[in-house]
């Protein structure tokens, strides 16, 4: 069988939140990401699906949420993405710590990991997040959104995800099949001291790292946990070649599913983490102008006829605007 086209890295990460307004306020106002799509969970249309990203919704920048208010608080454990890390420009962590103090955000002391400085924090639902200082190249594909934070410190897409695995070896082998290269190991800090963290790198400029960490810590899905991590398979052909490679490893990927802004294939990797393969198109600006992203509730075609019923079942939310926030201060 031919080798699959290597993935360039992470496409998006989807998480579970509680209160939708609180989720919007934190990810838009506090962290300064743009709401590029306000939609619904296509498998549960009574629930919002929020997409936060850079100014243009560039692949490798979108953190998405299902605000399932009735679910309990989750617990990070084996078979989950335990940390989601974002890139920020070198020298910006002082700004972020001051901002977190101002907004009452829980964060921990900085740590060094693989030669980079990492600031761990939690979102209002307890989701573990990290900001990692990197040198952002002049030709970086991300486009910072600057309504709430200056360009010089703005989040520039994903840095990495950390996978907690009871038996890391089959997952490491799968990552190699997907086109990741093992680039280093070091002793883990924080959650599982003494264990070894292994880093894998893809060939793309954004969201290129996956860290694998052994743990038998039990977990449960709920508020503050990651639902799935999606990896870029830019074209349908790339996706099909990766799907075939995953299937050849003994896993059970779905058929392609049309998610309106990209096309997806899902499977659980050996340790239980839900992986998605996502195409890069047609993109978040395929159904509304770039300068109007996130302004209205967008329903994929098959749901449009049910708009009145769907809107009636969703909580009213207000997207933060800089001029409104300033007027309230």
CATH class assignment: Alpha Beta
CATH architecture: Roll
Run of helices and strands: EHEEEEHEEEEHEEEEHEEEHH
How many structural domains in the coordinates?
1
Q: Tell me how many strands there are.
A: 16
Gyration radius over CA: 19 Å
Q: Biggest sheet: strands side by side, in what order?
A: 2-3-4-1-13-16-15-14
Class by alpha and beta content:
alpha+beta
What distance separates the N and C termini?
A: 61 Å
Mean pLDDT: 95
How many helix segments? 6
Overall 3D geometry? globular
> Percentage of helical residues?
10-25%
The CATH H-level homologous superfamily: 2,3-Dihydroxybiphenyl 1,2-Dioxygenase, domain 1
The main sheet comes to: 8 strands, mixed
- Which fold name fills CATH's third level, the topology? 2,3-Dihydroxybiphenyl 1,2-Dioxygenase, domain 1
Low-confidence parts, pLDDT < 50 over ≥5 residues? Answer: none
Q: What percent of residues are in strands?
A: 25-35%
Domain VOC: 9-134, 157-280
Protein name: Ring-cleaving dioxygenase
GO molecular function, one term: dioxygenase activity
Pfam family, one: Glyoxalase
Give an overview in words.
The chain has six helices and 16 strands. With 329 residues, the chain is α+β, with helices and mostly antiparallel strands. The chain has one domain (10-328): 2,3-Dihydroxybiphenyl 1,2-Dioxygenase, domain 1 (Roll), CATH 3.10.180.10. The strands form two sheets. An eight-stranded mixed β-sheet has the order 2-3-4-1-13-16-15-14. An eight-stranded mixed β-sheet has the order 6-7-8-5-9-12-11-10, with helices on one face. Strand 15 (263-268) and strand 16 (274-278) form a beta hairpin. The longest helix is centred in the last third of the chain and has 13 residues, at 236-248. The mean pLDDT is 95. It comes from Salinigranum rubrum. This is Ring-cleaving dioxygenase. Keywords: Dioxygenase, Oxidoreductase.
């Amino acid at each position: 069988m031919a080798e699959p086209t290597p993935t360039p890295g992470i496409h998006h990460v989807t998480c579970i939140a509680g209160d939708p307004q609180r989720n919007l306020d934190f990810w838009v106002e506090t962290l300064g990401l743009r709401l590029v799509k306000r939609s619904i969970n296509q498998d549960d249309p009574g629930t919002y699906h929020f997409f936060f990203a850079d100014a243009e919704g560039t692949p490798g920048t979108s953190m998405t949420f299902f605000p399932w208010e009735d679910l309990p608080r989750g617990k990070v454990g084996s078979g989950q993405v335990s940390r989601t890390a974002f890139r920020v420009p070198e020298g910006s962590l002082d700004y972020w710590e001051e901002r977190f103090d101002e907004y009452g955000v829980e964060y921990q002391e900085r740590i060094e990991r693989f030669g980079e400085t990492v600031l761990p924090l939690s979102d209002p639902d307890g989701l573990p997040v990290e900001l990692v200082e990197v040198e952002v190249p002049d030709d970086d594909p991300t486009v910072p959104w600057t309504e709430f934070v200056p360009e010089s410190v703005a989040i520039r897409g994903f840095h990495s995800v950390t996978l907690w695995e009871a038996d890391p070896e089959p997952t490491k082998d799968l990552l190699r099949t997907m086109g990741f290269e093992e680039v280093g190991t070091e002793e883990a800090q924080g959650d599982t001291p003494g264990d070894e963290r292994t880093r894998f790198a893809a060939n793309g400029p954004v969201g290129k790292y996956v860290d694998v960490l052994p743990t038998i810590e039990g977990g449960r899905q709920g508020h503050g946990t990651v639902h799935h991590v999606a990896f870029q398979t830019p074209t349908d052909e790339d996706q099909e070649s990766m799907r075939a490679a995953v299937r050849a490893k003994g896993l059970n990927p779905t058929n392609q599913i049309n998610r309106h802004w990209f096309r997806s294939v899902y499977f659980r990797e050996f340790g239980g983490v839900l992986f998605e393969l996502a195409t890069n198109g047609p993109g978040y600006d395929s159904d509304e102008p770039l300068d109007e992203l996130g302004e209205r509730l967008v329903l994929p075609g098959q749901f449009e006829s049910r708009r009145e019923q769907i809107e009636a079942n969703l909580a009213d939310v207000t997207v933060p605007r800089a001029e409104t926030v300033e007027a309230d201060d």
